[in-house]
Design brief:
heterodimer, A: 359 residues, mainly alpha, B: 105 residues, alpha+beta, four-stranded mixed beta sheet, 5 helices, 16% strand
Chain lengths: 359, 105
């Protein structure tokens, strides 16, 4: 905040008065003071000259003037003091407002992130508190991803009701698959920062989280959900069943791997408790084991990506489009169920679920 | 030099998984192989005094983990990613056929 320095009177005679917009009235006083000082200086010069010539009348007049000037100066000093106090109060008010603004901006940002997600990310704020910027960015991107996904699902629904060329439908299928790949790429970036965030499914709605498997949907679920409605021929049925079998085996292997991770971590703490282990060494080893969680999440996502890919190869273009529509709608229904669930809570519940939007 | 040691170990053992005793992802791959009725040989590189060099050599050979590093029939297959992709595409089981043991649970 820049304050213009005094524009009147040379500094040597009066000192610097800072003029600020909060007190225009003060300007009047400065001018009077400037004039007063100049007059006084002149007077003192004049009086010394004049005193030689004319004493009685001149002295009386100059005494009156001098008193007036002294009064004016006193008033001026008083005004200046009051002005300084007002300025101090003004600056303090500005400071308080600035802090309040900063706090409001932060609240707004947090509310906006929650608002973008409506009921999607109810617990993440409580669990993660001030989110780190990587996760905050992910949540914003995910909100956009969902909006885009909803658009694509509507497009699929519309296009499947019309006669459409195979290449055109094929492009749409690739477009949706590519959209899923974007999500996996986004998740890869978060896995580096915080694998636990993904493992807890923090960005998803509560109902979706109920079905969570290592940070996302279970790949075999995809197959189970779409299979009955696709009108597969015999060869396709065999291929899809084989794919599902392989999928389940891979899922079981990864699940057991995660369980092993839990067991070895628990074992490490037991050693410490039993006095058998060295605290520092065990903690360090546990820390290294936790880092492997990132690998599990990445492997789970890899499995999801592969399942989508393999399915699209077994199915015809039309079947693939239908499968993606069914699969997309499946998640829309889960999210809709979650909104209904949030909406049924009574008002006196704690604000875990601040948004009652029905999607 | 280390690569030779690795390849020798791999070719001596039909199904070879280079692993670490603390690696749970390696354990997951092991479980998958057992589920497919084969018994892989596990070489825990953290129990080998030259473990660090082996790990570096595996990285140079192109294993993304680098562990688990899987060899079948002396040939490099890959890490967890590659094993999972092969399995979903149905190509893993044919590779394992020569080593199939009915009594592996």
């Amino acid at each position: 905040m820049t304050t213009p320095t005094a524009r009147f009177a040379p500094p040597s005679t009066m000192g610097i008065y800072h003029i600020s917009p909060w007190d225009d009235a003060f300007e009047g006083h400065i001018m009077v003071a400037a004039e007063a000082e100049t007059i006084l200086n002149n007077k003192s010069e004049n009086t010394s000259d004049k005193s030689l010539e004319d004493n009685s009348e001149g002295n009386q007049a100059s005494k009156d003037n001098s008193e007036k000037i002294q009064r004016r100066l006193a008033q001026n000093r008083e005004a200046a003091r009051k002005s300084r106090l007002r300025k101090k109060a003004y600056v303090q008010k500005l400071e308080t407002s600035r802090l309040k603004l900063a706090r409001l901006q932060l609240e707004l940002e947090q509310a906006r992130l929650q608002g973008l997600l409506t009921c999607r990310s109810t617990a993440s704020f409580e669990i993660y508190g001030p989110m780190n910027s990587g996760i905050a960015a992910f949540e914003v991107e995910y909100g956009n991803w969902i909006d885009e996904q909803d658009r694509k699902i509507s497009e699929l629904r519309n296009v499947l009701q019309l006669p459409v060329s195979e290449p055109e439908l094929g492009m749409m299928v690739q477009n949706v698959l590519s959209h899923y790949r974007n999500l996996f790429r986004m998740k890869r970036d978060v896995a580096r920062t915080d694998a636990f965030y993904l493992v807890h499914g923090a960005w998803k709605t509560s109902v979706e989280r109920f079905f969570l498997w290592i940070g996302g949907f279970r790949p075999s679920t995809l197959i189970n959900v779409v299979m009955p409605q696709l009108g597969l021929d015999e060869q396709q049925v065999v291929k899809v069943r084989t794919l599902r079998h392989s999928c389940v085996q891979a899922e079981d292997a990864l699940s057991l791997g995660v369980e092993k991770l839990q067991q070895t971590l628990a074992q490490g703490f037991t050693y410490i408790a039993a006095g058998a282990g060295n605290y520092g060494a065990e903690m360090l080893s546990s820390l290294e084991k936790l880092e492997s969680l990132e690998s599990f999440v990445l492997q789970a996502d890899h499995l999801r990506e592969q399942t989508l890919d393999r399915m699209s190869r077994i199915l015809t273009t039309h079947q693939a489009a239908k499968a993606l529509l069914i699969f997309g709608e499946y998640f829309q229904r889960l999210r809709a169920l979650n909104s209904l669930w949030c909406g049924r809570l009574k008002p006196q519940q704690p604000s875990y679920f601040p948004h009652y939007d029905i999607e | 030099m280390m690569a030779e040691k690795i390849l020798k170990l791999a070719s001596d053992n039909g199904i070879m998984i280079f692993s670490k005793s603390s690696c749970c992802l390696c354990y997951a791959v092991q479980i998958l192989f057992q589920e497919l009725h084969v018994k892989p040989n596990i070489y825990e590189i953290d129990r080998d005094p030259e473990g660090k060099e082996i790990e570096k050599a595996l990285m140079r050979m192109g294993f993304s983990g680098p562990i688990p590093a899987v060899f079948i029939n002396g040939k490099m297959v890959g890490s967890t990613n590659e094993v999972m992709s092969l399995h979903l595409s149905g190509s893993l089981i044919p590779l394992l056929k020569p080593y199939h043991q009915a009594n592996v649970s």
